[in-house]
Specification:
Layout (H helix, E strand, L loop, with lengths): L1 H44 L1
Length: 46
């Protein structure tokens, strides 16, 4: 029972960490695309 409980907590932590890392990567990609778009717009305007 205790081993299963530990395994379950570990799995939840692993999933949480995976989602956290994925979110950071996703946000960075969105920021990168936004920066690229704004640079293109600046290039067109200037």
């Amino acid at each position: 029972m205790n081993i299963l409980k530990k395994k379950f907590i570990f799995n939840k932590a692993a999933i949480g960490l995976f989602v956290f890392v994925y979110m950071i990567k996703y946000i960075n990609i969105k920021k990168g695309i936004y920066t690229l778009k704004s640079n293109v717009v600046k290039g067109v305007l200037v």
